[in-house]
Amino acid sequence: MKGFAMKKIGETGWVEKERPACGPCDAICKPIALAPCTSDVHTVWAGAIGERCDMVLGHEAVGEVVEVGSEVKDFKPGDKVLIAAITPDWNSLEAQGGYAMHSGGMLSGWKFSNFKDGVFAEYFHVNDADGNLAHMPEGMDIAAACMLADMVPTGLHGVELADIQFGDTVAVIGIGPVGLMAVAGAAIRGASTIYAVGSRKNCADLALEFGATEIINYREGDIVEQIMAKTNGKGVDKIVIAGGDNDTFAQALHMLKPGGIIGNVNYLGEGDYVKVPRLDWGCGMGHKQIRGGLMPGGRLRMEKLADLVMSGRIHPEKLITHRFTGLENVEPALMLMKDKPRDLIKPLIILED
Ligand code: NDP
Ligand code: ZN
After folding, report:
1. 241: which strand partners?
2. 80: CA distance to ligand 1 center in Å?
3. 123: number of CA atoms within 13 Å, CB side?
4. Which ligand is nearest to the CA of 173?
């Protein structure tokens, strides 16, 4: 089969591989829709997880099952399935401890395009199929289904990490597709004010549609100064970080109230340290929590998030700004993610039959 791969740090290309083998608890799927992720960009061009050689990229897909192992109970060939980007080992101790995304070691629930070939291929392998696949609801928009792989669960996880409550004043730093879903999640959770930090116009427009109350343009001035001015010097209760760089933590801590929580889902691709400014962290006594997490996967969560889509509470299909057809177009779609033209939010590739 052919797949689009990271050949080495800084280089991508097409590779020929054996179709993956199906273990007793696994499934083999073929993609019916795919999307590239900013994380693929960090992985290839920043070398963020180290060297990988001829590893098929991609972790965002909707698929059709083509083969299942002898122990798989709830899925069969022909089923249309949602697949989370993170596919934990549900029998692991880490999963039993509540952190399935770290099953087998830190970040090891992230298998596609990290420890094994990803989804940008004619076929891909899903471990623990009964735990990691979810049936795609009848009538679900294919774009929304594909955004359920990563953008929805990651954006909403930022909201969970920040523990956003009724009436909270919130800042969402970064309103690319992940941050936009965090804005939508913060609105569902009952935030009273949502400052959405970004600069691309269509992201800002969608943030307002998803529930942001104000846009803060980081290119037009320091975000701390802007948000402190708007909150009469008090700062915000909760912050979701879904963009920016290592210095963003310093800004976030400065504008976070004592007792506040930062939920980070940004993938820090470069540099060795994250700055925690001593005074803004209350000399270590400010009750300001910093949490960061990989999105949880799992069938139950995927089914619940799919219900949110089907009930019309979230509209992840609105993230799609660029559409392609055919596997060969994962290449230009990934290059769009790398180059981030200002009219881009998220590309989608539909596969022909
Ligand atoms: P995008 O690049 O599309 O969006 C990044 C956002 O951050 C944009 O709104 C951008 O603004 C803004 N931004 C950039 N620089 C700054 C700055 N200095 N200060 C404030 N805002 C800034 O990314 P995605 O939405 O696709 O992904 C967000 C992050 O989430 C990525 O790091 C990705 O790898 C990560 N991720 C993490 C996962 C997890 O499980 N934790 C899973 C999936 C993704 P502008 O409008 O100017 O572009
Ligand atoms: Zn991703």
Report:
1. 173, 264
2. 30
3. 16
4. 1
Which residues contact ligand 1 via a Cβ below 6 A? 37-39, 42, 150, 154, 173-179, 197-200, 203, 218, 242-245, 248, 265-267, 294-295, 340
Structure confidence by residue, pLDDT tens digits, 26-79: 999 999 999 999 999 999 999 989 999 999 999 999 999 999 999 999 999 999
* Residues 61, 173 within the same domain: no
Q: Does 145 lie in the same domain as 6?
A: yes
Q: Nearest ligand, CA of residue 178? A: 1
Of the listed ligands, the closest to the CA of 267 is: 1
* Dist. CA 245 → ligand 1 center (Å): 9
End residue of a domain, out of 292, 318, 341 = 292
**What values do phi and psi take at 48, rounded to 5?**
-65, -30
Residues 143 and 208 in one domain: no
In this structure, the strands spanning 256-264 and 236-241 are parallel
Give me the sheet containing 55-56, strands edge to edge: 11-16, 2-8, 55-56
Residue 8 near residue 49 (C-beta atoms within 8 A): no
Measured distance CA(39)–CA(56) in Å, rounded: 14
Tell whether 176 and 282 lie within a shared domain. yes
Compute, in angstroms, the gap from residue 48 CA to the centroid of ligand 1.
15
| Positions of the chain with pLDDT lower than 70, given as ranges | 353
**What's the number of domains the chain is made of?**
2
The predicted structure's pLDDT at residue 275: 85
Q: Which residues, in sequence order, are CB contacts of 106 under 8 Å at separation 6+? A: none
The H or E element containing residue 205 is: helix 201-210
Q: Which residues surround ligand 2, an ion (CB under 5 A)?
A: 37, 39, 150
Report yes or no: 52 and 17 within 8 Å, Cβ to Cβ. no
Domain shared by 164 and 54, yes or no: no
